[in-house]
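Deliverable D5.2: sample structural annotation.
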Amino acid sequence: MIRPFGRRSCRNVSVVLIFSAIVALFFVKMSPLSNPLPSYSGEHQVGIIDVEADCETRVLHPAVFREGGEVALKLESVFFTLFYPATPNPIHSPPNHYWVPRPLSLTAAGYAHLAHVSSSLLRRVFTFGLWLFAGATTIPAHADAALLSRLEHELGGLRDGSAAGRPSLSLLAYGAGLPVVVFSHGMAGMRTSYSHYCGELASRGFVVAAIEHRDGSGPGSVVMKGEGGERDIVHFDREDVVSDPPITFEEFKAAQLAFREAEVEETIRVLRAINEGEGERVLQENPRAEGRGFADWEGRLDTDSVTMAGHSYGATLALQTLRDAPSKNLPIRSAIMFDPGKESGPLNSLITVPTLIINSGSWTSSPASFYGRPHFAVVKAVAQSVLDRGVHAWFLTLLHTAHPSITDAPILQPLLFRLVTGTRLNERLALDAYVGVSYDFLRFVRDGGRRGVLGSGVTSEDGPLGKVGERGVDESGLWEVHVAPEVEEEEGGEEWIET
């Protein structure tokens, strides 16, 4: 059931104007509004599979919707999209997945709710605008393709690697399972919002599970129970639920994060089941009807050493999952965070695994008070506390970027993105930088070698809180390094020199 929406606010006007501009641009240019998503640059082709799996019902908070009285934060199933290195069948090729999940009207209704738009007419405008913006956009990955064959995986260690001239991950993980990354989207995000980033990692040998959170933070999602039942979840916030006593803002955020953490646990549980030979069962119980080759995934995944990654609200979640990591249910041994949230609750600093925190330029430069301290100072303290425990950690800023630069949005509509955000770094260069530093970090976790900006020392210790003239950059000129391990004369890992 789609929930009723709140009152219109000043933010409504901005959102409606943007959608009106999109419609106007369509009729002026008479051409598709969005660029297609580009193919991936790594060594491997990329497959994509939607997986939904029932789980033991969990109620993370007793609050119910004002309309209907149903429990709001009740976990019944987990839904995620797998991006993975693939061996596609040239004869049988199912249609590509749409970038905007279906039905479009549900996703548009969620974005209308985010903008506090309640008018049915304006909600139709949102649906039309979303259709114009990216309704026909597809993800350039092979739907339900076979996992990279064992032979190709092993032969990868004998080749010279990706198009970027780096060694393949197979060289670093010869004889081991494919490394697993679990990705958590931010507020208003979807499991597909970061498809280019996830696909790029998959093309380099990683299996990435991008979760679609049903905690109310996304625009909309259809819960498909294995027994045939369906229900719609549209974006909701604290004002849309009631409880006795009334739930506070802090309690609501904590409950959402608990819900998200439960979804991470269930995602890893399903991946473990596939890896342990239960792939056929997972396929049969998947209402999304994908995963035909799961039986061949047995023993192919490294589910005992997962990397947790997330953006914004998802970064706050990633930090939270590290509280007791690694553990039985959360075997997380490294983490990557992009722009940890400023309004999503306290940031966990009890971390004992290698950690990479990356801020966009706007996230670092925009001042924000966070529990009585500057947000930048809090994030820096989190990274520094990891270092103080003798564990490797970095805190970086990618200059001239904005909060959504890690998403697909700047690729789909670069001109509109630059107009709205004022970014100066080319959107493809920005995403390449995000992918590159993530790849270097994931390789570091496996071989201890510091490459690229991770080999740099601190260049801007206090960032925006320091004195003018004290903010240095790395050799590329793209990164400020706020926290980093000391640079030793001789690194432990291999040095890769491009020729």
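Annotation notes: Residues 249-284 form the longest helix (36 residues). The chain is about 30% helix and 20% strand.
The annotation will be released with the project's public dataset once the embargo ends.
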